[in-house]
């Protein structure tokens, strides 16, 4: 119980922690042992039933866009750290995961117009905050 899922894949080098882009990016949440409510970020106390028995679980990295907006001014800093070359507007929104929860994330895209509710999104990074990008279709532009 509470043991991390182990997948033998030959090399044994499956312990990719969070990577900035290369390799597999993992998103960890928690699941309540009492009522199976999933939370992100991981919570020690279930916000639905108040149970204190939660286990860390790996969340899906593919989701769908639920809602978004464009951040056109720099957020309060700290915690926001502006990029070295200055602030540029970026998209933020909620991505609904297969587990049924919606998580707030920065949305990577070239054109905000490609962000539509229900669009498939893929996790690209988790640090310092979750970051999703639209799933590219076959025809790249
Ligand atoms: Zn619960």
Automatic annotation (TrEMBL):
Gene3D superfamilies linked: 6.10.30.10
Which residue intervals define the domain ChsH2 rubredoxin-like zinc ribbon in the entry?
Answer: 26-53
From the UniProt entry, list the residue stretches annotated as the region Disordered. 1-26
What superkingdom heads the lineage?
Bacteria
What InterPro entries does the record tag this protein with? ChsH2_C, ChsH2_Znr, NA-bd_OB-fold, Thioester_dehydratase-like
Where does the record place the ChsH2 C-terminal OB-fold domain? 58-124
Q: What is this protein called?
A: Predicted nucleic-acid-binding protein containing a Zn-ribbon
Which PANTHER family does the protein's record reference?
Answer: BLR3430 PROTEIN
């Amino acid at each position: 119980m509470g043991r991390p899922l182990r997948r033998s894949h030959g090399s044994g080098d499956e312990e990719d922690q969070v990577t900035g882009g290369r390799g597999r990016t993992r998103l960890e949440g928690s699941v309540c042992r009492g009522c199976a409510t999933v939370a992100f970020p991981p919570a020690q106390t279930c916000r639905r039933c108040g149970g204190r028995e939660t286990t860390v679980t790996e969340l899906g990295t593919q989701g769908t866009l639920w809602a978004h907006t464009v951040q056109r001014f720099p957020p309060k800093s700290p915690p926001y750290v502006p990029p070295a070359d200055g602030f540029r507007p970026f998209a933020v929104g909620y991505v609904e995961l297969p587990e049924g929860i919606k998580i707030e994330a920065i949305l990577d895209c070239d054109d905000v117009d490609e962000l539509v509710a229900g669009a498939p999104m893929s996790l690209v990074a988790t640090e310092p905050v979750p970051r999703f990008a639209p799933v590219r279709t076959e025809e790249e532009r």
